[in-house]
Each structure stands twice: as C-alpha cells, then as structure tokens.
Write a structure and sequence with these properties.
By secondary structure, the chain is an alpha/beta fold. The protein has 26 helices and 20 strands. The strands form four sheets. The protein has a seven-stranded parallel beta sheet with strand order 9-10-11-12-13-14-15. The protein has a five-stranded parallel beta sheet with strand order 2-3-4-1-5.
C-alpha cells in the first residue's frame, strides 16, 4: 500500500508543478484554459491532502478496497492530465522552432486546437472533481510508514558476489569431466540437472562451474543459454549460433538453416551447453533439441538449472544435483560482505548493528538471493531503528511462510525502500521477457524517454541514468553477465516482482491472452507484445488504449505488420516509445509526424530505403535506432530540426554509403554519436557545424578536410568524450599551399582524453605541435596513411602509445 500511495503522491506533485508553469505568460496563446488550470491545481491540492492523510494514518498498513480503487482512479486521471499538459508544451516548442525559421507572430493556438484542448482539460477536471467527491465514500486508508529511500552509499560492490559453494562446485566439475556421466540420451551427451527452489543460487553455481579452468580445458566449446519459462527451440538455436559466430542476422534464419548451422558447429566436438532456468514438463519439448545435440562429440555435457524437481526425468538424466540452502554461517558471511564492506559507514557502526543483522539474516532462511537483497537494502544505512523495523517486518512475514515462500516478502521489502524514480525504472523492466539480456544503455534511453530519471544542471541525463542502473545493480535487481559489465539480466524471481509491482502501469500481451480474450480492463501506459502474430493484438490495443506511452515488441522473430504503423500514427498521440524493429515494414507513413511526443523510435532491421521528411517534425525525439537497415542509403534533409536528438544509432557501414550529408547538423547540440562528418563549403555543411556538439562520444571521422576553413571553430578541444578521431583529406585533393594544411591540422587539436588518432592523405610539411608535445596523455595509437610530405614526428613524450606509424 505504501507503494501505491507514494506513486500517487509523486505524480500529483509533478503535475501540480507542471500546471503552475502554464499560468505563465508564454502559454497565454491557449485562450480559455486559465480558469480550468486553476481548477486543476485546486483539485490536485485536495487529492494530495487526502493522500497525506492516508500516509499519516496510524492504523498500520491496511487499506480498504474502496480506497485502493480510488487511488487507482486518481492515478489514471492525473496521468491523463500530464499527457495533455505535455502536448501543449510540444505545440509551443514546435511553434518556437518554426518561428526561428519563418519569423511568425507570438504563440497563439489555432482556434480548433484551442477548442479541442480546452474541452479535453474540462473533461479531465470534471473527472477529478468526481473522484474527489467519491473520496468521501471510501473508508480511510490504514496508513503506512513510508520510508522514501534516499540515495545511499553504494560504492563499488561486485554484483555477482559469491560466498561458499566450494564443495558444490567441486562436485559439479567432477560430474562434468568424468567419463561416467553417460545417460540414456545417447552415448555422446549427458544431461546433468541442478535443481532447487528459487533464489537458492542454481545459476550462480552454474556460473562458477562454467568459469572453472578445468572445464575450459576439458571442453572444446562452451555455450550458455538463458531459457526461461518459454522453451523456444528456435531461440535456443539462435543463441547457440550467436555464441560461436559473428553472424548477427540469425533472426532471419529458417529453422532448417539454424539446425544445419548448429550441427556444423557442434559435430564431433566435445561441448558444454548450459541451459539456465529451464521449465519443461514433456519429453517432446526436449526431444528435438536432444537430437541436434547428440551430433556432438563423445563426452559432451548439457548442464541444466531448474526449479522443477522432475526435469531430470523429462530429459533422460540421472538423479539431479539438489542444491541446498545456506546454513546460518554461510548466510552471515554473505551478508557481511554485502553490508560491512571495509570503509563503509555500516562497517564503522558494525558493533551496534550486528545483533539486528544476525536476526534479519535468520529470517532469510538460507536463501542467498534474499540475503543479498536485504543486504543491499541495509548497506550504507546506520539507522538502528530502521534495522529493527525491518527485522520486525520480516518476522511477521516469515513466521507464517515456508522456506520456499520466504523470498518474495524480502524482495518486496527491498523494492518498497527504493526511491520513487528507481521504482519506476525497475517496474519498466517488467516489459522485457524473462531471461532477456539487457544492454545497460538500452533501459537508460527508455527511462529518459519516459522522464523517469531525475535530472539536474550538473550531469548529463545518461550519467544520472547510469547511476540509477548501478543503484539497482548494487541492490541485486540486476545481475551481471559479461566481464566488460555491459550485459545484464534480471533473476526470474526479480522479474516476477517487477510484473507484480508494475501492474498499474505496465502490461505484457502474450499469445494465450489473445486467444482467450484476456486483455485487461484497466488502462496501462506501457505495453509490450510477445505474440508471434503481433498485428491483430497490436491493432486491438491501439484501438482500446489510446493514451499509451510505450509500445514494444521485444521478440527476435520477424513481425508481419501491415496496418500497424498507420494506426499507431493516427491514434496514439501521447506515445513516447515505439519499437518497430525486425518487422516487415518497408516504408514509414508520412503521418509519423503525428506522434509529437515520441522520444524513442527503433526501426532497426527493417527494409526501408529512406525515411520520410515528416519524421523531422518529431522535435521531442531523443533516440533513433536504425541498426541493420541494409537498404538505407540516406538521411532526411531536415534531420537538423530534431534538436533534442541524443542518440542516432547506425551501422558503421552506413556512413561509407552515405553520399549526401544533411545540412545544419550543428543544431543537434545534444547528439552523442556522429560517426562521420563530411566538411563542405556551403552554409550548413562547414566545419563550424561541429562547434557546439560537445557531447559527441566514441568515434568521429571528419572527411573532405580540404574544404575546411577556420577549423578552430570545430572546437574539438572541448569534446572530452571522443576516444577516436580520424582526420581525412580526399586522395589527390588540391590545396594551394601545404602550409594551409599545417595550420588547419594545428587548429584541430583534440581533447586530452583522445586514445586513438588516424590521419589520412595529409600533405602538410609538419605535424601539429600537439601530436608530439605530450599533451595527449591517453593516446595509445596513431595511424598515418599516407602522409608523404612530412618526414619527422617525435613521439617519445607519449608514454601510453602502443601502436605507432611505420
């Protein structure tokens, strides 16, 4: 209940502040809405007071059903009010952008637009007024002790923290590398299951075994596949193929081709395949994969983790390895490592906190996931009263529950203590499938699109979002999958929690719900569709829920879309996030411009050859993904109008195909990735377009430098996030004086953070002073190809340089 109250309280506060801004002079073009805005503020103040009363009510955490329904109604209506206010802001910003070009008069809304928004606001105010009156019919909330969590110290905590399991690891390694593990599945492979309740550490043990040196020496091939609830043979084969090849286009492979390619990889080779978190009840589900794997070499193994104790029977294995819970000492050792890390505030207060900690750990009943979560909650917290309070809450829950039911109350307690914005970020991840591999940057871009990240004037939103992700990671809501700490996933129990706590806003649509007509009656804001035939359920959702903010299709298979893009463009006016990737779309409708609130658009892996110019009217767009669009050879000419664009994601090969660069790219002052900039002589194409693009990150390739004038205006010295720079003159270009090139390259001095430098077809007499004077302290590589006139370059002051020109 505390969660619902905090959600409603927070969104009401946000919309109150937003409504206040609409009583300022710049929005006076919206005639006839001032009174309704004031009415909206008055009603929001009443609602906020009622919510505060409920929070402060001393009668425990109980809430009546009528109060819960009332809060949910408030939540939906206030979100609708926010959508409307956001649309006004967009209209104003669109007018301002057009005014800069066409010198229009001050913002005055069109008569029909004015009538529409005025009517919509009156309808929302009337709904809220009715809701306020209904409040008197509700029994009061029982009240809660809301402890809205501040950002506590987290430091650097290894997310896949491991304690114990030495004996279990040794047992499993011996089973895998011995010659006695053959089973009835055939002479070449053996299936070895690890079973146990959720949260006991099956995946952790499998990872320990997978990383063991003896395993790496024994098996020629190692493959890890996270399976999850849905045993999808196609997806499993794709994961096997992706782990062993560089072929990124497996999503388009037929089943027969997948099968052939996997057999080619495994044939007569001794392999270890880990199938993590598998749920199968019938042999036919396993049989087809078994037949493929049996082509492997003798001694191959399939290591399975599952909560189903009967999985070994289905897969023809010997008795499973039943993973036990931790004993009290092991649990305490894990808790110590999480909470009392050396140098932390909790370590300094250990003597005072330890007794409470040991009592809390006992309530986790030996489940490592529960111990880590409660540890992540208490780390950095030296409030003895809070430790005592958490111990009492766990005591009430655990006394009435078996060991297998202990985990969820602990996870819920950990979630309840998150701050409002971290709760929203976590809940949003319920839209991903179970076992989904998450690239850290992807959810951050989605959170930005939904305004879940609390911005400030000091840091980039991406940096704040990264810290939010790390906060959730350090509290074990994510677990790391890769050594470079870029790939993550959610434990299946954590995913279950995300689905449970996000019910008010998020919804997954699956095939069985569509067949049984089980679409919910409530009104979610964020929807993901997992259906194999996605067109019909998508059309039903578009018709049913017109105030959607998110529409995702997070599945790998090709989606057949015919009417969906047009229907979305004409119906979902408040949409912020849209994923149309891996679909049969060959052209975007011009009406895409209607999605004025859109912030995130994924068009990856579709057969488009061009983007409509109308896409450049999406002035709120932050992320545009066009990866794997092999037929795309150009960008819209007015791309520079997307002034809020931060991430333009294109394959490297696209920039080699692009023949005409859009003008005025310098207007994209928030852009983070621009692989190539072609210098021209005409306005809008000159090198000074780069001047204010201070957030450029990664690689920047500047071509046709023979056209550059006033190269200092590129302001490369201030682009501190660039790691690789390429300076390219056209081969055989004519320049009157080689000295002109000397001065030009001198003025293109990069920031001190640059690590790699490539210079092509430079024909100046001398290299710039900044290349050899030791300023580029992080430079590790220089490539000169070819630079025929210059003979002398001293690099002895570049201490980190590893690759030098020949």
């Amino acid at each position: 209940m505390a969660d619902l109250l905090s959600i409603v309280s927070s969104i009401v506060t946000i919309v109150q502040e937003q409504a206040s801004s609409f009583l300022t002079e710049k929005y006076f073009g919206l005639y006839g809405v001032e009174q309704e805005i004031e009415n909206l503020q008055r009603l929001l103040r009443k609602i906020q007071a009622s919510v505060k009363d409920a929070e402060e009510n001393p009668r425990g955490s109980f809430i009546s059903n009528s109060m819960r329904v009332w809060l949910e109604d408030v939540h939906v209506a206030v979100y609708d009010a926010q959508d409307l206010l956001n649309s006004w802001t967009t209209e104003y910003n669109l007018h301002q952008a057009e005014n800069q070009v066409n010198k229009l008069r001050p913002f005055i809304a069109h008569k029909f637009y004015n009538l529409r928004v005025s009517g919509e606001l009156k309808e929302i105010v009337a709904r809220l007024d009715m809701i306020c009156k209904e409040k008197n019919e509700c029994h009061p909330a029982g009240g809660v002790d809301v402890n809205e969590n501040r950002r506590r110290e987290t430091g650097s905590l290894l997310n896949n923290l491991i304690v114990g399991r030495e004996k279990e690891t040794e047992d499993m390694v011996k089973l895998l590398v011995s010659d006695t593990g053959e089973t009835s599945t055939g002479e070449n492979i053996a299936v070895i299951p690890i079973v146990g309740m959720g949260g006991v550490g099956k995946t952790t043990l499998a990872r320990l075994v997978y990383a063991d040196d003896r395993i790496s020496r024994y098996f020629k091939i190692k493959i890890w596949v996270s399976v999850g609830n849905n045993f999808d043979l196609n997806q499993i084969l794709k994961e096997i193929l992706l782990s062993q090849t560089n072929d990124r286009d497996v999503s388009y492979f037929s089943f027969n081709l997948l099968q052939t390619r996997v057999v080619d990889i495994l044939a007569r080779k001794k392999f270890l395949l880990v199938l993590d978190d598998i749920w199968i009840n019938d042999y036919p589900e396993w049989q087809e994969l078994e037949n493929i794997l049996s082509r492997g070499g003798k001694g191959s193994r399939v290591l399975v983790t599952s909560r189903l104790s009967t999985v070994y029977k289905v897969m023809g294995a010997k008795a499973p390895y039943d993973l036990p819970c931790f004993d009290d000492d092991e649990s305490w050792s894990l808790f110590e490592k999480v909470v009392f890390q050396e140098g932390s505030s909790t370590a300094d207060a250990r003597e005072e906190l330890e007794a409470y900690g040991k009592e809390i750990v006992r309530k986790c009943k030996g489940l490592p996931l529960a111990v880590k979560h409660i540890g992540g909650l208490l780390r950095g917290n030296v409030d003895v009263q809070e430790w005592s309070r958490i111990g009492k809450e766990l005591n009430e829950e655990s006394n009435s529950k078996s060991k297998s039911n202990t985990i969820f109350p602990v996870l819920r307690l950990s979630y309840d203590r998150l701050s409002y914005n971290l709760k929203r970020c976590f809940e949003y991840c319920s839209l991903f499938p179970k076992a989904y591999v998450i690239d850290k940057n992807d959810p951050i871009k989605l959170w930005m699109a939904e305004d879940f990240i609390e911005r400030n004037d000091m840091d980039r939103t991406e940096e704040i979002g990264s810290r939010d992700f790390d906060d959730l990671l350090n509290r074990f809501f994510f677990e790391c999958l890769s050594e470079d700490k870029t790939k993550f996933r959610m434990h299946d129990l954590i995913h279950d929690l995300a689905i449970e706590v996000s019910k008010l806003l998020c919804f997954q649509v699956k095939d069985n719900q569509v067949k049984d007509k089980k679409l919910i009656t409530r009104v979610p804001k964020h929807v993901s569709i997992f259906c194999k035939d996605a067109e019909q359920p998508a059309l039903e959702i578009i018709e049913k829920w017109k105030n959607l903010r998110t529409l995702l299709f997070p599945v790998e298979h090709l989606k057949a879309f015919d009417q969906v893009p047009g229907k979305i463009s004409s119906s979902l006016r408040y949409l912020r996030v849209l994923d149309l990737s891996s679909s049969t779309i060959v052209a975007l409708p011009k009406s895409i411009e209607n999605l004025k609130e859109l912030r995130y658009l994924d068009l990856s892996k579709i057969d488009i050859t061009e983007l409509p110019e109308s896409i450049c009217k999406l002035i709120n767009l932050q992320t545009l993904k066009l990866l794997g669009c092999l037929g795309l050879f150009q960008l819209p000419s007015k791309l520079g109008a997307l002034v809020n664009l931060r991430h333009l994601e294109l394959d490297k090969m696209f920039w080699n195909k692009l023949s005409i660069f859009p003008p005025k790219m310098g207007q994209l002052t928030s852009l983070h990735n621009l692989h190539t900039f072609e210098v021209g002589r005409n306005p809008g194409h000159r090198i000074e377009e780069l001047k204010n693009m201070v957030y450029l990150t990664g690689t920047l390739r500047i071509t046709k430098l023979e056209n550059a004038v006033n190269s200092r205006e590129a302001n490369l010295k201030d682009k501190k996030m660039l790691q690789k720079l390429e300076y390219v003159w056209s081969n055989g270009s004519n320049v009157d004086e080689a000295g002109d090139r000397d001065a030009l390259l001198e003025d293109l001095q990069p920031h001190l953070n640059v690590e790699e430098l490539i210079i092509c077809h430079y024909r100046g007499n001398d290299f710039p002073s900044w290349m050899g004077n030791g300023l580029l302290r992080k430079l590790v590589s220089i490539s000169l190809s070819p630079c025929t006139r210059t003979k002398i370059l001293s690099l002895d002051k570049l201490s980190k340089l590893k690759r030098t020109p020949s």
